[in-house]
Design a protein that fits this description.
Layout (H helix, E strand, L loop, with lengths): L14 H26 L5 H24 L9 H23 L2 H8 L2 H13 L5 H18 L10 H28 L2
Helix pairs in contact: 2-3, 3-7, 4-7, 5-6, 5-7
Length: 189
């Protein structure tokens, strides 16, 4: 007697497996981009490094964008897309600028306040309820960030670069979230 399992003739590159594979690839490529950016800042300005990095990333993302474009309706370029692009450029320039003057690990540790900033801004800008427990967690996280930044002892103004990058990234997430809400309302009818 043979036990037969139901077989679905579907590619493994769809559904959950594809999402995990793509996320894993992104988690390898993003730190690689940061690591390659640091030595470039020895000869190029952060703006020049970001200007080189964006087309390099686009070369990887363009094929996926062309495939996914078939699923989307509406204009591909809009003021929201332009604002998002501007915020991404601010994020990249500030983060690459931080890489130029401090260790990558320190810059990324400071940049990790982005979810905390996003949580604080979600209430006033998205109308989402942020409860007292989340606000307490944000406060604890910000204390941790202050420990990494070390204001007072040997505080450097360059510590504001990853903070500015985190704020810009958080604002970009909010812009994209609001745009998604509007897009769903306009395309679901």
């Amino acid at each position: 007697m043979t036990l037969a399992l139901p077989y679905k003739s579907r590619s493994m590159w769809t559904g959950s497996f594809a999402g995990m594979a793509y996320m894993s690839a992104a988690m390898v490529l993003l730190p690689l981009g940061d690591t390659l950016s640091k030595p470039l800042t020895e000869t190029l300005t952060p703006i020049e490094v970001a200007t080189v990095r964006v087309p390099a990333q686009a070369a990887f993302l363009l094929p996926a964008a062309m495939v996914l474009r078939k699923r989307l309706r509406g204009a591909m370029f809009s003021p929201v897309v332009a604002l998002s692009g501007l915020l991404v450029m601010i994020t990249l320039i500030c983060l690459i600028g931080a890489f130029a003057v401090m260790p990558i690990a320190t810059a990324i540790a400071i940049f990790f306040v982005e979810p905390l900033i996003l949580t604080v801004l979600a209430g006033p800008l998205l109308g989402e309820a942020v409860g007292p427990r989340r606000l307490a967690a944000v406060g604890i996280g910000l204390v941790g960030a202050l420990i990494v930044i070390r204001p007072g002892a040997e505080f450097e103004i360059s510590a504001f670069l990853p903070l500015l990058a985190a704020g810009s990234c958080a604002l970009n997430m909010i812009v994209l979230r609001r745009a998604a809400r509007i897009r769903i309302q306009t395309t679901s009818h």
